[in-house]
Amino acid sequence: MRKDSPKIIHKVAELQKFALNARAKGKSIGLVPTMGALHDGHISLVLRSAKDNDICIVSIFVNPIQFGKNEDFDKYPRRLKIDAELCGAAGASVIFAPSASDMYPVPIQTLVRNFELEGLYCGAYRTGHFSGVLSVVAKLFNISLPKIAYFGEKDYQQLFLIKKMVFDLNFPVKIVGMPTIREKSGLARSSRNEYMTAEEREQAAAIYAGLKAARQKFENGTVSCAELKKIVKKYIENAGGKIQYVEIAKDSDLLSIKSAKITEPSVILVACFFGKTRLIDHIIIAD
Ligand code: AMP
Hints:
Rossmann fold, Pantoate--beta-alanine Ligase, Chain: A,domain 2, 2 domains, six-stranded parallel β-sheet, three-stranded antiparallel β-sheet, 10 helices, globular, binds adenosine monophosphate
């Protein structure tokens, strides 16, 4: 594992040339796609990628086509220098930090879409978000030629959609999903946590507390979707949060459970606001 400063590459053509050369020499490449403002969650992916591969590439790109008009594209935190240092310390060899004009020299006309799932859960509130994510990930795969790419379970629907894209379109890439890294309070680490006040951040611990309470209730025999959702909502609302959605999906295909009861391994998915900050989390419930 390397510990010195990673090479920073800004140009698409330069990274693609680097990756082609590395692959021709038989080197394995691990890719960790991120939007930067890195925290321990991202770093857990970088550490694993650096351990598994000859070369670990971390992409840092705030991808404009996955943000809606009224979302936080402009205010999303950007701090390349600190991020590069963190990645270097975690063993990354290359940081790929392209400009939007290099990634999209002309407006993109070809998008990757998942027609079944793009409009569900987060997709119901973020039109075009998942096609933006899938399309940029497809581009990043073609530019950096990874053998393995690492994503967080934190963005559960995103991870599911990426695995499905790789399967459906036969990308020669293995996808590794990594567990969610949390703050001491249980709040999932996120670059967006820093938008919150200290008080909101404390209150937002209720999200995971509610999810764990629902899982406990399930383990104690409650299989009613409505009851389990009610628990999560109650925790969040009592802490001052505003629910966007609480849904329960089958873990096998991420489609909503049609019956009122849980009969197979499932996942509770939640999105909510604390103040103006939108947060997501999930928990698996299975026997
Ligand atoms: P982002 O920069 O938010 O696009 O995230 C880049 C990658 O890091 C994605 O695969 C995320 O799922 C993953 N990630 C973000 N937060 C966490 C976390 N708390 N634990 C583990 N992985 C995370």
